[in-house]
Amino acid sequence: MERKQTIVLNVKIADDKYRIKAMKIAAGTKGVTLVQFEKKQDKLKVEGEAVDLGALLQTLKKKVGETIVSGFFPGFNVSQPRNRNLGSTPDTPVSEPDTPV
Question: Count of domains in the chain?
């Protein structure tokens, strides 16, 4: 049961060469399913499930330049509905507690 994550990174990019390099690094990181780059703001948006953020940050800092996390949105699991009644599951009936006689 994985959760979709959205991570926004500020990356100091000198030119298009490093922008492409940053996107390739992000796309190759474990768990990443989508990579977008906002050129005007130097923001890299990464989406995925169980993204290895530590490895992504370390690699970007080493190979591209200064990288700062500006937003992290953990999301929620949409594959299963939430069960508001914590004492039971939809498959099991709710019973009254046994009372001593």
Answer: 1
